[in-house]
Specification:
Elements (H helix, E strand, L loop, with lengths): L1 E3 L5 E3 L14 H8 L1 H7 L5 H18 L10 H14 L19 H23 L7 H24 L8 H5 L2 H4 L2 H7 L4 E5 L4 E5 L6 H20 L4 H20 L3 H20 L4 H19 L2 H10 L2 H19 L9 E2 L22 E2 L4 H27 L6 H16 L8 H18 L7
Antiparallel strand pairs: 1-2, 3-4, 5-6
Keywords: Membrane, Transmembrane, Transmembrane helix
Protein name: O-antigen ligase-like membrane protein
């Protein structure tokens, strides 16, 4: 039996299928951000990104199959070129540049697969977030989730300061074989700890890392997330959220200083100057007075508390300067030797900068050998993916900053500040995975502001 349907289509009476849902649920993105402390405690941590990327991919494909448009972010061609460069550069994985430890390509494959999986997973995060509508996941809610993660970062920093040796075995870690769970790389993924214990100023001190795994990543994310707690608080007319946001920022000074993280200090300065410059150009001259008051408050805090001594001690002890210079030179040398596609991944140096007699052993996996490309995203791009990968990566985010330069909303300015700070951070921080995730979410907010026509502010 058939029915005549208006429009001339013929359908079986019993074969009609219910329409497929085309709305994208918010939970894949919201779950990552809202429950990140839980994922960290379970031992999933950064692994939550590829885990959630799977349902994101399925939902995006389902929506496209249902006839709904799948939007691509502005500058998507540049990012696609970067991913192609990452793949092509794997062809050079077996090369052993001068001064590096000789290994088979297969021995380097794990790190390559990890980074590739993360790049693809975070690309899906950008696509998914950018294709969500206001009714599915509003920009205001996304900003609140990012602001929440700044609070989590500050809390993790305080844990690192006051309980630096706090750590525990996660459930995921318990499930791994003994020979696997003890590996340094695996530990960084599944073993929750509050701080990295390092001798930076003449004695071993805890440097905040929770819940981001490394002190440098903690500092990078601090800069990328700080603006969102302010935007979230000032999006409401209530006084309570504003007071709590200011309190959080004041308390954040303690772990930020104690972290001994000069890159963080520079990053905060970049964010503040960028935001102040944007508001001054908009004629909001009051920001100069606010900047002066904040600077005076910070100066008083540093001169009247032990925090000032911590800063001075760090500035007087530049132990890492020589190592960074050594690794930058090795990265530039490698770039000149393979300028087009790079070497596909990082390499370990033979010995250290002063001697070739130090090195890893079964008892100490990370003794002596330094990682070329492990001291900053820019150097890793140049060394691992050559000119093509480096230009494509920088062009994607650079194009975004130019494309969205007229966005004068609080969201637009905070997102721009996050991306600008990431450019300075590239000199000393690597971006995989969480910093790149937060850069992509800032990009998605700028993109969605443009789609909604909301770029003028108030």
């Amino acid at each position: 039996m058939t029915l005549v349907v208006p429009g001339g289509a013929l359908r079986g009476a019993h074969s009609a299928e219910p329409p497929r849902p085309t709305a994208l649920p918010a939970w894949p993105v919201a779950a990552i951000l809202a429950f990140y402390p839980l994922w960290w405690a379970l031992g999933l941590g950064v692994l939550i990104f590829p885990i959630m990327a799977a349902p994101m991919a399925v939902l995006l494909v389902r929506r496209r199959a249902a006839g709904r448009e799948l939007r691509l972010p502005p500058g998507a061609g540049w990012w696609a070129l970067f991913l192609v460069a990452v793949l092509i550069s794997i062809a050079a994985l077996g090369a052993d540049p001068a001064g590096t430890v000789a290994e088979h390509a297969g021995d380097r494959l794990l790190a390559v697969v990890y980074r590739l999986v993360m790049y693809v997973s975070l690309t899906l995060l950008l696509l998914y977030t950018g294709n969500l509508t206001e009714s599915e996941l509003s920009r205001r809610r996304l900003v609140r989730l990012l602001g929440w993660l700044f609070v989590v970062t500050v809390a993790g920093g305080l844990l690192g300061v006051f309980a630096g040796k706090f750590e525990f075995t996660s459930p995921v870690e318990w499930l791994l074989p003994d020979g696997v769970r003890g590996k340094g790389f695996v530990q960084s993924l599944v073993h929750p700890y509050a701080a990295q214990i390092m001798d930076i100023v003449g004695a071993e001190k805890p440097r905040p890392a929770a819940p981001w795994g490394y002190t440098n990543t903690w500092g990078n994310n601090f800069c990328l997330l700080a603006g969102w707690v302010v935007v979230a608080a000032w999006a409401t007319r209530r006084t309570g959220p504003k007071v709590l946001a200011l309190l959080c920022l004041v308390v954040a000074i303690v772990p930020a200083v104690v972290s001994l993280n000069r890159g963080l200090w520079i990053g905060v300065g970049v964010v503040v100057l960028y935001v102040a410059g944007r508001y001054v150009l908009m004629g909001r001259l009051w920001v100069l007075a606010a900047l002066g008051l904040a600077g005076a408050g910070l100066a008083i805090a540093l001169t009247s508390t032990p925090l000032g001594d911590v800063v001075n001690a760090r500035l007087d002890n530049g132990k890492s300067n020589g190592v960074r210079t050594f690794l930058i030179e090795r990265a530039v040398d490698g770039f000149t030797e393979s300028p087009i596609i790079g070497y596909g991944s990082t390499r370990n140096t033979i010995g250290g900068r002063n001697s070739i007699t130090v090195g890893e052993s079964s008892a100490c996996e990370r003794c002596g050998n330094f990682t070329v490309g492990g001291n900053g995203q820019l150097w890793q791009l140049m060394y691992a993916h050559g000119t093509v990968g480096t230009i494509a990566y920088l062009a994607f985010f650079g194009y975004g900053l130019w494309r969205f330069r007229r966005d004068r909303t609080p969201i637009g300015i905070a997102a721009g500040a996050a991306i600008v700070s990431s450019f300075s951070a590239m000199l000393w921080y690597n971006a995989i995975p969480t910093p790149l995730a937060f850069m992509f979410l800032a990009y998605a907010l700028l993109w969605r502001n443009e789609l909604e026509g909301d770029v003028h502010g108030s």
